[in-house]
Automatic annotation (TrEMBL), chain A:
Transmembrane segments: none
Positions in coiled-coil regions: none
UniProt KW keywords: Coated pit, Endosome, Golgi apparatus, Membrane, Protein transport, Transport
GO CC term (a single one): Golgi apparatus
Protein name in the entry: AP-4 complex subunit mu-1
Database matches in PANTHER family: AP COMPLEX SUBUNIT MU
Classification via PROSITE patterns: MHD
Organism: Astyanax mexicanus
A Pfam short name: Clat_adaptor_s
GO biological process, alphabetically ordered: intracellular protein transport; vesicle-mediated transport
Subcellular location: Early endosome; Golgi apparatus, trans-Golgi network membrane; Membrane, Coated pit
Bilayer topology term: Peripheral membrane protein
Family of the protein in this entry: Belongs to the adaptor complexes medium subunit family.
Highest taxon listed in the record's lineage: Eukaryota
Automatic annotation (TrEMBL), chain B:
Family designation: Belongs to the adaptor complexes large subunit family.
Name of the molecule in the record: AP-3 complex subunit beta
KW NADP (keyword) present: no
Protein transport keyword on record: yes
Cleavable signal peptide: none
Subcellular location: Cytoplasmic vesicle, Clathrin-coated vesicle membrane; Golgi apparatus
Length: 447, 936
């Protein structure tokens, strides 16, 4: 392949417009390549600049992660996939080594990241991106700031009723660098297993589920310096594909499943056990998809009524029901309702004071936010929108409604981790955390 | 810019201060600050013993050497010393930094270093040598020829670590030398799955290009299939079919070259890779090389990539869009995956639309149109505009839905959003051009819109439509002109031009009603600010208004203005993109990027496939062949290395010819010797990695021939003249890596021929398997007095149980059995010192066996220990910091369990032998064997 990648500039965020880190591997880049890129990005409108941009004979390829732009530039025909994949890996490695991925952590770890870049790429050729190999070469240690964070308390339930402090991993625990071999105090033997699902749903105007899609993954973040084999047991009734049904009723089914190459599957077929020796850092062990049918009802249903009031007023009455089991709760729910272009103002009646709603003139939409939404509950809201020159055609401009939310401790496919064992049991204290979360990817309800 | 504090720290004696200073300097470089004035202070520390400091100094040197050439030269001698360091990591990093110093004076030093490193025993150093090649090439292109030699040598390397890097170097330095690949083609295909992921991408792309020059187009005879997948261009298709039919008549039926098949088969599993670049590389390989019926497999993998980051999605969709034009069928089952999500960024939405449009056909169009309808409600205006255009394209491509689409678009004309209306007008205009006569009511409807629509492009389109089809709307057209004449001065330029156009057309068809209006408009235009408009007005007046002097063109005015215009073709912007290799940057930009290698067309007739043949025994040390042949043909111990001249036909004959030529060419013995030596070291580069440098010097003494022991399988007396011996060649058994390769030598001591040698009725322990040598055949004769070598594979299941079977000739059957010594049940594993320690740490307790011993008299030196141990067991040496210790590593052939051996010497001839292995039986037996070897 015409593989002269020159990951030249790994520069960063656009807000202040300066670059954080820059490395030129071939001595070909102009000194002002960074500013050219910056100008090109800022000159563009729209939500995302094109992934590949060229300026004269210089091509820029970038990805965005952690609010930073990771940019590579090349003058020759390199495989764009390789570069994008590499930049993504670089971001992942930076996260592994620095603990978290943000401007601050990058700023504090210039030397470390520069050293990483130096080891990963030689004269534009990728040498290795494996955490395990790189660990042998990296000398610099990560610098982290551990300020007291309110996020640590985010998992604590109201009134402390549901909290079992001992069983809740503080979120900051999972955002520390993997390399702490020299400072002994930070080296806690912890392992995190996250089941993360993203759901995307389209519900038709008649309330029928038109499209449903769940993408999920099992992620492991490992802090054990040398990990022996880990065994992760999934639901026994877990099945892949349509034909294969196991047990009675309650099967947890996915359409497609792929595994990290390090996962041993010899016990998967019979016992649904994944065996893996995770290396330090973050890895995705398993990815799965479920399309077209959900094992349970979609988490939210909407009952909208849109009518013309007297004068130029539009009445939108929304009844929103959360179909989760009563123990679960949805967090940070927001509902976006597009309204006619000429809408001027909004008055609303909401069912509780912690909810908010406002009319966003820029997007011509009402944004209704609900910080906490318990399962089984039903909320309603009445919006009165002032629309000059309201006609019956305007009613058609309302919708489709889109929602975003977060469902902690819940998976839409029903996938659960039965057990998590390290064998042979690791000497010393090792803590194991299993977390579940479902995010909305795209949740659309047509009106 | 005084960095005095840093300089002071660098000059101090304390490593910790130096380290701190270097860290701060590297952080400065990373931020893009200039730290070049520190060069003298830093370069002094290049010889620093502390490895952390040393590394950071290297980082600094690479960055500033070019600017400070004179000072950089001071550090060269340090690197030269580093190149000879016993630690492979130091050798490699010295080479890496040396080759990164871009100073022309050191080109000869670099060249020498690369050449030496290319035959280093450590594959890691050889890999670094491969990386250094393009660096030197870009510094001094004059070195090309010499560098190609090194590349050629490294291409022959059999370790996966080197393969990816050397192919990168090949691609950069001499991509045109496709001939260098021939001999390595099959090896690269077979290694591919084990190469690290970034190397896989490079190799796959190179092999795609290679295959295009060496194999025939697999789709050459499949004219009929095209219709099945549906092509947008029917005329083209017909012609193509005819041409193909003609070709079909002429051509022999297509048979795929087995090497072509090998490539397709070995790349397919990589579609599961978690690296998007690898998946895409395989996908483009299949798209460009596979028979149509097989291309479908990549669709699923590509759809899977769409669940990745949005940047990956963007690039995948670009490629999918191109593929859907050529091969619509393969993505049809995944139609839903391309539905747009409200959270997609605009550029992804537009690409998905493109794909959906390409996938639309008679059966799925209604679903797609329903989906499109919901998109129109989106808030993203660019996306809505693109959707409307997509509807237009579906309507042109699929005749059945044209009216439905048109009706839908007309409904959009009453949308409150002006942009939606404007875009619809533009698309409707294009659609109406196809069948104007049936749609005069739509034209009327649009004429009414001129009162409301302000978007210039839409206004212009409406005016053009009315002018063009004024005969269908004879009453409305003059009225529209009247209104336009009134607002003329306030219109945009494109609208003004269309007003002029409309006026001219009406004047020609309906001059009674519009003569005065036209005059008025022309007069207004005469004084317009824009000279295009003034020009146009003057031109139209001359053409249509009859005067005395009016030229010859006037009578053709009507024909000129109202000629039948061909309907516009609405086609995909991705059409014809596939002449760029998919997955390349050029494809993404739709323009050639620098250094893009054109994907060649298939050859008319296949080049000679035999160029890829490699002598089977070549892999068993080709070098030996020549030497030994000279000395003692058929000699017992050396006979192993005789290539089996008869066993595999053509290439062997060629090989023999070469040997003959060499003989006739050079009479002198010594020359022949040296030649054989050089080829020996080449083919052995891998073998060497298991021994040490000092051994390398004395290579002659432990020439492989002496270290391999022959065992008897059939004595010539029991065999009635047929003698059979075997040995463990320690080569990977390529058809099945879990098998041990056993080389068998048949010697016919009778006076008659022996025919059809083969194996029958194997009696094996459960789990054991035999892959017998290909039967040499009925025609094959083992003439009296000759001998032949074959290789068979046995999976011993990591046990020393014997494999029993019958050896048959055309007349007799003999019961024989092969029992492997424990040392032959393993293959060398290449570990670094750290890896070794880590693995050893995990194989403690029951898995560790330790024995004390007294070294035999002849085994006191390192060299002797290494020799004895490697002779006993197929292990490779692991680099080791301590002088007292020798470490070896291997893996069992069948299950791949690690076998680690440590021999620690003690004062006074004593030693401690430690074996770590998960398989305790193997460990115990190995300890016994090695103990015996070392104490003798």
């Amino acid at each position: 392949m015409w593989f002269q990648i020159k990951i030249k500039s790994s520069l960063c965020p656009v807000y202040p417009g300066d670059h954080l880190i820059y490395k030129d591997y071939r001595g070909e880049a102009d000194k002002d390549a960074v500013s050219i890129f910056y100008e090109m990005v800022t000159a563009l409108s729209g939500d995302q600049p094109p992934v590949v941009m060229s300026h004269k004979d210089l091509n820029f390829i970038h990805v965005r992660q952690g609010g930073l732009y990771w940019v590579a530039s090349t003058k020759t025909d390199a495989s764009p996939f390789t570069i994008i994949e590499f930049l993504n890996r670089l971001a992942a490695l930076t996260k592994d080594y620095c603990g978290s991925l943000c401007e601050k952590s990058v700023r504090m770890n210039f030397a470390l990241i520069y050293e990483l870049l130096d080891e990963m790429v030689d004269y534009g050729y990728i040498q290795t991106t494996s955490t395990d190999i790189l660990k042998n070469f990296i000398q610099t240690e990560a610098v982290t700031s551990k300020p007291f964070s309110l996020f640590d308390l985010s998992n604590v339930g109201l009134f402390g009723a549901e909290t079992q402090q001992s069983k809740v991993a503080p979120s900051a625990a999972a955002t520390r660098p993997i390399m702490s071999h020299r400072s002994e105090q930070g080296g806690k033997n912890e392992i995190f297993v996250d089941v993360v699902e993203r759901i995307s749903v389209v519900i038709g105007s008649n309330g029928v589920l038109m499209k449903a899609d769940v993408e999920g993954e099992i992620r492991v973040k490992c802090y054990l310096p040398t990990c022996s084999e880990m065994r992760i047991g999934l639901n026994e009734e877990f099945s892949i594909g349509k034909s294969q049904l196991r047990g009675y009723g309650m099967a947890v089914r996915v359409d497609e499943c792929s595994f990290h190459q390090a996962v041993k599957l010899d016990e998967f077929d019979t016992y649904r056990i994944l065996k893996v020796c995770p290396s330090q850092g973050e890895q995705t062990l398993m990815q799965y998809q479920l399309s077209d049918e959900l094992p349970c009802a979609p988490p939210f249903r909407l009952f909208p009524t849109v009518e013309k009031d007297y004068g130029n007023r539009l009445l939108i009455f929304l009844k929103l029901r959360c179909d989760l089991p009563p123990k679960s709760t949805a967090l940070n729910v927001s509902v976006t309702v597009p309204v006619p272009k000429s809408s001027l103002s909004l008055s609303q009646e909401l069912s509780s004071p912690d909810q908010t709603a406002d009319l966003q003139l820029k997007n011509k939409a009402i944004l209704w936010s609900i910080p906490r939404f318990p399962g089984g509950a039903q909320l309603s809201a009445l919006f009165k929108v002032e629309v000059p020159g309201l006609s019956s055609a305007s009613l058609l401009e309302v919708g489709p409604v889109s929602m975003s939310f977060e469902l902690p401790k819940h998976t839409c496919t029903g996938l659960q981790i039965r057990f998590l064992r390290l064998s042979p049991t690791h000497p010393g204290l090792s803590q194991r955390w299993v977390r579940y979360v479902t995010h909305s990817d795209s949740y659309t309800i047509r009106i | 810019m005084g960095h005095d504090d840093l300089k002071e720290m660098l000059d101090s004696n304390k490593d910790s201060l130096k380290l701190e200073a270097m860290k701060r300097i590297v952080a400065m470089i990373a931020r893009g600050k200039n730290a070049s004035d520190l060069f003298p202070a830093v370069v002094k520390n290049v010889a620093c013993k502390n490895i952390e400091v040393k590394k950071l100094v290297y980082v600094y040197l690479v960055r500033y050497a070019e600017e400070q050439q004179d000072l950089a030269l001071l550090s060269i001698s340090t690197f030269q010393r580093g190149l000879k360091d016993p630690n492979q990591l130091i050798r490699a990093s010295a080479l890496r930094v040396l080759s990164s110093i871009r100073v022309t004076i050191i080109v000869p030093i670099m060249m020498l270093a690369i050449k030496e490193a290319a035959s280093d025993m450590s594959p890691y150093v050889r890999k670094t040598a491969a990386h250094a090649i393009p660096k030197l090439y870009s510094l001094d292109p004059e070195q090309k020829d010499q560098l190609i030699e090194v590349i050629e040598k490294l291409l022959a390397d059999k370790t996966t670590l080197v393969a990816g890097s050397v192919v990168m170097a090949f691609e950069e330095v001499c991509p045109e030398r496709i001939d260098l690949i021939h001999k390595n083609y099959r090896k690269l295909c077979n290694l591919l799955i084990d190469v690290e992921e970034w190397g896989q991408v490079v190799i796959i792309n190179m092999l795609t290009r290679y295959a295009r020059t060496q194999f025939l187009n697999p789709n050459i005879n499949e004219g009929g299939e095209k219709a099945f997948y549906g092509s947008d261009d029917e005329d083209d298709d017909d012609e193509e079919k005819k041409a193909e039919a003609a070709a079909l008549a002429k051509r022999k039926p297509y048979v795929m070259d087995p090497d072509h098949r090998l490539l397709l088969r070995n790349t397919k599993p990589l579609l599961q890779s978690r690296n998007a670049a690898v998946v895409m590389a395989v996908a483009q390989l299949y798209f460009h090389l596979a028979p149509k019926a097989e291309v479908g497999v990549i669709a699923k993998a590509l759809v899977r990539l769409m669940r990745s980051h949005s940047e990956v999605q963007y690039v995948v969709l670009q490629n999918v869009a191109t593929m859907t034009i050529k091969r619509r069928g393969m993505f049809e089952p995944y139609l839903k995956s391309f539905y747009i999500r409200s959270t997609d960024p605009t550029q992804i939405k537009i690409l998905k639309l493109e794909v959906l449009t390409n996938l639309a056909n008679e059966t799925n169009i209604s679903t797609i149109l329903r989906e499109f309808q919901t998109y129109i409600k989106s808030m993203d205006k660019d996306f809505v505009a693109a959707t409307i255009q997509a509807i237009g394209r579906c309507a042109t491509n699929i005749g059945e839905v044209r009216d439905t689409c048109l009706n839908g678009l007309v409904q959009l004309l009453s949308n409150r959003d002006e942009l939606v209306v404007a875009e619809s007008v533009v698309v409707i205009k294009k659609l109406l051009q196809m069948q104007p006569e049936q749609h005069s009511d739509i034209i009327k409807h649009m004429a009414k819109l001129t009162d409301n629509i302000q978007v210039p492009m839409a206004r212009a389109s409406i005016l053009w439509l009315i002018g063009e089809y004024c005969e269908h709307v004879p009453k409305i057209a003059p009225d529209v002109l009247r209104k336009m004449a009134k607002s003329f001065t306030n219109e945009e330029d494109i609208v003004k031009l269309q007003i002029l156009n409309l006026a001219a057309k009406l004047y020609l068809t309906n001059s009674k009603q519009t003569k005065l209006l036209t005059q008025y408009v022309l007069n207004l235009a005469k004084y317009d600010q824009n000279y295009d408009i003034r020009d146009r007005a003057r031109f139209i007046r001359q053409l249509i208004v009859p005067t005395d002097k009016s030229g010859a063109l006037s009578k053709y005015a009507k024909k000129l203005f109202l000629a039948l215009k061909p309907a516009p073709v609405l086609e995909s912007p991705f059409k014809d993109r596939d002449h760029f290799q998919l997955g390349s940057l050029s494809h993404l930009l739709n323009a050639k990027a620098g250094g893009y290698q054109e994907l060649p067309d298939w050859p008319e007739s296949a080049p000679d496939p035999s160029v890829r043949n490699v002598e089977v025994k070549d892999s068993v040390r080709a070098g030996g062949t020549v030497t030994l042949r000279g000395r003692a043909p058929g000699g017992q111990a050396c006979g192993v290395f005789l290539s089996s001249d008869q066993s595999s036909g053509e290439e062997q004959k060629r090989n023999r010819k070469v040997v003959k030529e060499r003989r006739s060419g050079s009479e002198s013995e010594s020359e022949e010797e040296s030649e054989s030596e050089s080829s020996e070291s080449e083919s052995e580069s891998e073998e060497e990695s298991e021994s040490d440098t000092d051994i390398k010097k004395k290579k002659k003494t432990i020439a492989p021939s002496s270290s391999v022991r022959m065992y008897e399988l059939l004595h010539r007396i029991t065999g009635e003249g047929l003698a059979v011996e075997y040995c463990f060649s320690r080569q990977p058994f390529s058809p099945d890596p879990h098998m041990v390769a056993v080389q068998i030598q048949f010697t016919n001591n009778t006076s008659s021929e022996t025919k059809s040698l083969h194996i029958e009725d194997p009696k094996l322990q459960s789990g054991m398997r035999i892959k017998e040598f290909p039967e040499i055949g009925q025609d094959f004769l083992l003439p009296a007095g000759e001998s032949v070598n074959v290789v068979m594979g046995i999976d011993f299941c990591d046990s020393t149980q014997a494999a029993n079977f019958q050896l048959c000739t055309h007349t007799r059957k003999f019961f024989v059995s092969i029992q492997p010594p424990v040392g032959e049940l393993m293959v060398p594993a290449f570990l670094t010192e750290n890896e070794f320690k880590k693995e050893q740490g995990q194989l403690m307790g029951m898995n560790e066996i330790s024995e004390k011993l007294n070294l035999g008299e002849k085994c006191q030196s390192d060299h002797a220990i290494v020799e004895r141990v490697t002779a006993k067991a197929n292990l490779s040496r692991v680099p080791c910091g301590s002088e007292k210790e020798n470490r070896f590593a291997g893996k069992t052939v069948s299950s791949g369990s690690l076998v680690l051996v440590t021999v620690a010497r003690k004062e006074g001839g004593g030693a401690q032998l430690t074996v770590n292995c998960e398989k305790m039986v193997i460990g115990t037996m190995l300890v016994k064997d090695i103990l015996q070897a070392l104490t003798q």
